[in-house]
Amino acid sequence: MDLPVMPPVKPMLAKSAARIPAGMRYEAKWDGFRAIVFRDGAEIEIGSRTGKPLTRYFPELVEAFRANLPPRCVVDGEIVIIRDGRLEFEALLERIHPADSRVRMLAGTTPASFVAFDLLALGDRSLMDAPLTERRAALTEALRDAADPVFTAPVTDDVEVARQWFSQYEGAGLDGVVAKRPELGYRPDERVMAKVKHERTADCVVAGLRHHKSGPVVGSLLLGLYDSTGRLQHVGVCAAFPMKRRQELMTELEPLRMESVEGHPWADWAREEAHATSRMPGAPSRWTGTKDLSWVPLRPERVLEVAYDHMQGDRFRHTAQFRRWRPDRDPASCTYAQLEEVVSYDLREILGSS
Fold first, then answer.
1. Does any domain span residue 190?
2. What is the DSSP string of 166-204?
3. Could you read off the pLDDT of 10-54 as tens digits, one per residue?
4. What's the Cα-to-Cα distance from 325 to each of 54, 66, 151, 297, 303, rounded to whole Å?
5. Which of 34, 256, 323, 326 could cross-link 303 (Cys pair, CB 3.0–4.6 Å)?
6. 144: helix, coil or strand?
7. How far apart are CA 303 and CA 200, in angstroms?
8. How many domains does the chain contain in total?
9. Same domain, 273 and 163
């Protein structure tokens, strides 16, 4: 491979903003694997956000890139899986598997798509220093004849349209909106874009904790919600505390600490088969490997209000954020029913795919 921009390249990043800024160029925020694709003739390499290759996990996209990308180019975008008009991040996680046979089976049953939104090189020319407006125009022209599963992300300069996308596209599983400065060159690994994500709150039962890697202070709080059968389901974690607060939380929660998991709603967490019918902490997976999945059980008596962006199935898609204790709430009232139901929106309306 001999391109004007060679792998690995870390992608340009975004920092969070409270609202959509004016005077920018806007795109939807895709919920998938960020990827930079390098093509030099028949050679294809798919680089991850960390620079490590993803190529072996998406053989169907390798063929799609040969069919749809210019012969020599470097393209920034997002790998996604679309099911029933929505993005499915869970299905994407399944693709990172050590067995090639498993990867190829999933490539046939749940094929991935690629949404391109930036062009770093074309032919013998690097576009890294070119402004976004020029890169975007070149991308649109380069992918003019591309077909499913390779798409070009919709873009707008109208902040009102961006605000409409922010509320409307969530129903298709998108994260929010990204704003980019039109005059800016490509800045690898720098947070020079803005991202505006959805935030909601939910009252959850705190049913356990994990220690921080530094020692016996709170690393994360394990959150639960009751389903329609009255079973407490593990929905995610709340983390990212200053060290002083981690120590304070350990003291606050000490009275709720249980000597063992006996009698706890998640008492069967260590039995792999139990995870088939209930969502509990410590589910074994290829992501955890030899990681210590143990946790400290707490009597499920305290309610915590957390902020979250959106749900992925029956759990929080990302780490929730601590907002406040809710001593006025009965833990039994912390159910899925309180969660806002997002209006469905078909992803095909965004990408123009049948």
1. yes
2. HHHGGGGT--EEEEE-TT----TT-EEEEEEE--EEEEE
3. 999 998 888 999 999 999 999 889 999 999 999 999 999 888 899
4. 41, 54, 44, 18, 6
5. 326
6. coil
7. 16
8. 2
9. no
Q: What is the number of helices (H) and of strands (E) in the chain?
A: 7, 19
Contact predicate 300/206, CB 8 Å? yes
Q: For position 98, which CATH number holds?
A: 3.30.470.30
Cα–Cα distances (Å) from 255 to 232, 249, 270, in that order, read 21, 11, 24
**Confidence check: pLDDT of 190 > 90:** yes
State which amino acid sits at residue 329.
Answer: R
Residues carrying an active site annotation: 29
Task: Give the relative orientation of helices 100-109 and 59-68 as an angle to the nearest 10 degrees.
Answer: 60
Question: What average pLDDT does the structure give for the chain?
Answer: 89
Q: Is the peptide bond before 8 cis (omega within 30 degrees of 0)?
A: yes
- For residues 185-205, give the mean pLDDT: 90
Which range of residues forms the domain containing residue 218?
200-338
**pTM for this one?**
0.71
Residue 327 counted as domain residue: yes
DSSP E strand stretches across the chain: 13-16, 25-29, 33-40, 43-47, 72-80, 82-83, 86-87, 113-122, 125-126, 150-152, 176-180, 191-197, 200-212, 215-226, 232-238, 296-308, 311-312, 315-316, 321-325
